[in-house]
Automatic annotation (TrEMBL):
This is Secondary thiamine-phosphate synthase enzyme. Gene3D superfamilies: YjbQ-like. Coiled coil: none annotated. It comes from the Eukaryota. It comes from Urochloa decumbens. SUPFAM superfamilies: YjbQ-like.
Amino acid sequence: MNSAALALAPAVLSSASVRPRCGAAPAPAPAIISSASGRPRLGARSAVRCEVASSSAPPAAATQAAKWAQTTVVLPAQRRGCHLITPQIVNEIKDDLAEFKCGMAHLFLQHTSASLTINEKYDPNVRADTETFLSRTVPEGPSAPWTHTMEGPDDMPAHIKSSMFGSSLTIPITNGRLNMGYWQGIWLCEHRDHATPRQIVITLNGI
């Protein structure tokens, strides 16, 4: 390549020359402009940035500030249906959560006849309607085609519903809080008629 071509060629950063340093202190986040109701206005944003470190930085510097925390939350037995559990979850992890500026929270339900999902937190009719949908979608009773019925007619339907919604959630952490949408809440969906206490393992990771 001649000197003229070199002068016109755009600069290229090699992937080996820079890398995100997740352990670095994030830049201050701009304030979110909110309405009187507390709901973020359209166009408002909050940013938490990771710095870029040169390849000369020691490898340990990239992760030395990363943190982990884990706890198991035991929720009392609930009646069949969908239940908003955000307040209980936040109350159990609030001290650990406050230590994170930027990260992820992972929730894992240790059961096969209940499930976790994120949906509306305001109107309880949404939870009631969701239970109606599940009950009508998955047949139950003597006419149902299931062979796994050792724990009653709601046994196999509960397993199917558990797989429909799933047993885990991942939620971003921003400035010591679960960064969910304004209307979002964490639901525990109980699919058994006679439930037992439910355990959720919560793992936090970030800076």
